[in-house]
Q: What sequence folds into this?
C-alpha cells in the first residue's frame, strides 16, 4: 500500500469510528426513551436490560452506518481541502479519483460486510431483542395495563381501564374485560364501574376485584331457529374477583421466543417463506374458486348426462322444459314469489359477506408476502446505500473545503434526513403495494446515485458549484438588458428638448 493510501485511510478511520458509535448511541437513546415504561420498574435483573440494549444496538447498525460514512467522508475530504493538502495532491498529478480510490475500495468491503451483517447477525438480533423486550414488558402485567388502551398480554383476555389512580396506581375505574378463553370472539364481556388489582404474595396470580358491574355472555343454542333470537345471559354483581395465572410470566427465562417475523429471517429463509406463502395463497384461491363453481355455477341441462337419460325415458320432460319462461321467478306460483325473493336476498348477502371476508384474507396475505419481499430487497439496498452516500459525501467535502464538526455535520445531517425521509416514504408505498418492492427500496438510491456521480465529476474538474455569482449571471444579464434599455430611453428624453 502506498503512503498516500495509508494517509487517506488513516484520516478516514478516526472520524468514521467516532461518528458511527455516536450515531449508535443517539439512536439507542431514542429506543430507551420510547420503551422506558416497559423496561423500568419490572424487577428484572440488570443483565437482561444490558443484553436487550446490546441486541438493539446491533439492529441499529443499518441506519447508523450510512450516516457515519456520509459524515466522515465529508469531514475527511473537507479537511484535506481546507488544509490545502488536496490541492497539493492535485498539483503533484494525483486527481480526485486517485485520492478517493482507497476509500472506494474500503467502501466496497464495508458494503459487503454490511450485507453479511444484515443477513446473518441482524435477524438474530431482531429476534432476541424483540423477545426480551416483550417478555420484560410482560414481567409485571399489572404495570403494563395503561388507561384507555386494551392490554392483551394475558392470553385469552383483553383488559381496558378508563383510569388508574391511588398511591400504587392499583385502583381502577371504568373496567372492561373481554374473555376470549372460549375462542368464539367477543362473546363474553365484563363491565365494572371501579376495581382494584393486586398480585398475590407468591406472585403466582394477578387478582382484580371488580365493584358495581355486570357481565354479558352470548348463548349459542343448539337449534338453528333459536339462534336468530340471539339469546344472551346477563348478570349483575356488587363485587367480583377475577384471578389471572401469572405462571407464564414467572418462567424465569426471558429469552424464550415464540415466533419469527419477516425481519428475523435471512435471505434464504425469506425466499423459502415467500415461496411457501405464495403456494398457500394459490391453493386457497384455487379451493375458493372450485368451491364457488361447484356450488353456484349454472350448467345447461343438455350438458348433463343424467338429463339426457331422463329426456330419453320421459318424452314429456322435453315439452315441460320448452314451456319454461326465461324469467326464472315466473316459473313458480305467485304466492311463492315473496319467499323466493327473500331467500335470494339472504343468499346474496351471505355470498357477499363470504366474498368480502375472502378478499380481505387474500389482501392480508399479499401484504405479508410484500413485507417479506421488502425485507429481502432492503438487505441489498441498505448495503448499496453506503457506496451511494460515499459518492455524495466525498466530492461534496472536496467542494466545500471545510473540515471539523461545523459545516460538514450540518450538510451531512440534511442530506441524510432527505435520504431517510424519501426511502421511508417509498418503503411505505411498497408496504401498501402501490409500488413494487424493488421500486420502493431502490428509488432513493437511484435518485442520489446520479447526484453523487455529478458531484464527483464537478469536483474532479474543479468546477465551481457553490459560488452564488455563477448562478446569478443569467439574471444579471437580463437585468443589464433592462437597465440598458432604460438608460437609452432616458438619453432620448433628455436629448429631445435640445433639438
A:
Amino acid at each position: 500500500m502506498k503512503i498516500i493510501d495509508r494517509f487517506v485511510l488513516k484520516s478516514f478511520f478516526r472520524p468514521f469510528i467516532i461518528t458511527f458509535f455516536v450515531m449508535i448511541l443517539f439512536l439507542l437513546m431514542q429506543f430507551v426513551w420510547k420503551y422506558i415504561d416497559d423496561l423500568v420498574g419490572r424487577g428484572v435483573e440488570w443483565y437482561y436490560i444490558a443484553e436487550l440494549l446490546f441486541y438493539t444496538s446491533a439492529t441499529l447498525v443499518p441506519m447508523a452506518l450510512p450516516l457515519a460514512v456520509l459524515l466522515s467522508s465529508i469531514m475527511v475530504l473537507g479537511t484535506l481541502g481546507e488544509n490545502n493538502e488536496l490541492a497539493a495532491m492535485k498539483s503533484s498529478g494525483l486527481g480526485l479519483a486517485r485520492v478517493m480510490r482507497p476509500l472506494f475500495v474500503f467502501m466496497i468491503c464495508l458494503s459487503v460486510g454490511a450485507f453479511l451483517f444484515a443477513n446473518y447477525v441482524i435477524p438474530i438480533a431482531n429476534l432476541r431483542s424483540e423477545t426480551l423486550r416483550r417478555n420484560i414488558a410482560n414481567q409485571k402485567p399489572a404495570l403494563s395495563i395503561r388507561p384507555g388502551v386494551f392490554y392483551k398480554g394475558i392470553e385469552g383476555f383483553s383488559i381496558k381501564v378508563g383510569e388508574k389512580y391511588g398511591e400504587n396506581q392499583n385502583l381502577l375505574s371504568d373496567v372492561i374485560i373481554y374473555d376470549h378463553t372460549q375462542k368464539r370472539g367477543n362473546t363474553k364481556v365484563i363491565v365494572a364501574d371501579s376495581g382494584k388489582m393486586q398480585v398475590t404474595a407468591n406472585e403466582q396470580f394477578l387478582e382484580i376485584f371488580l365493584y358495581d358491574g355486570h357481565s354479558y355472555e352470548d348463548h349459542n343454542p343448539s337449534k338453528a331457529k333459536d339462534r336468530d333470537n340471539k339469546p344472551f345471559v346477563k348478570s349483575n354483581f356488587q363485587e367480583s374477583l377475577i384471578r389471572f395465572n401469572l405462571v407464564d410470566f414467572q418462567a424465569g427465562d426471558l429469552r424464550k421466543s415464540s415466533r419469527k417475523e419477516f425481519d428475523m429471517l435471512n435471505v434464504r429463509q425469506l425466499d423459502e417463506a415467500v415461496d411457501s406463502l405464495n403456494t398457500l395463497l394459490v391453493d386457497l384461491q384455487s379451493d375458493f374458486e372450485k368451491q364457488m363453481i361447484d356450488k353456484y355455477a349454472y350448467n345447461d341441462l343438455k350438458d348433463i348426462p343424467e338429463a339426457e337419460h331422463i329426456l330419453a325415458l320421459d318424452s314429456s320432460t322435453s315439452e315441460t322444459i320448452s314451456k319454461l319462461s326465461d324469467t326464472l321467478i315466473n316459473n313458480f306460483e305467485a304466492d311463492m314469489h315473496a319467499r323466493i325473493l327473500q331467500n335470494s336476498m339472504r343468499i346474496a348477502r351471505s355470498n357477499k359477506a363470504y366474498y368480502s371476508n375472502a378478499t380481505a384474507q387474500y389482501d392480508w396475505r399479499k401484504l405479508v408476502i410484500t413485507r417479506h419481499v421488502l425485507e429481502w430487497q432492503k438487505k441489498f439496498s441498505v448495503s448499496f446505500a453506503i457506496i451511494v452516500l460515499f459518492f455524495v459525501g466525498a466530492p461534496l467535502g472536496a467542494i466545500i473545503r471545510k473540515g471539523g464538526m461545523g459545516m460538514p455535520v450540518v450538510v451531512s445531517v440534511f442530506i441524510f434526513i432527505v435520504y431517510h425521509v424519501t426511502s421511508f416514504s417509498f418503503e411505505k408505498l411498497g408496504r401498501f403495494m402501490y409500488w413494487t418492492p424493488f421500486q420502493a427500496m431502490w428509488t432513493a438510491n437511484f435518485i442520489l446515485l446520479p447526484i453523487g456521480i455529478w458531484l464527483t465529476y464537478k469536483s474532479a474538474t474543479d468546477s465551481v458549484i457553490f459560488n452564488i455569482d455563477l448562478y446569478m449571471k443569467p439574471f444579471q444579464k437580463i437585468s443589464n438588458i433592462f437597465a440598458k434599455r432604460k438608460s437609452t430611453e432616458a438619453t432620448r428624453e433628455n436629448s429631445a428638448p435640445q433639438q
User: Anything to note?
Assistant: The beta strands are 157-165, 171-179, 188-199, 205-218, 232-245. The first helix runs from residue 3 to 34. Residues 62 and 382 are 7 Å apart (CA to CA). The chain is about 65% helix and 10% strand.
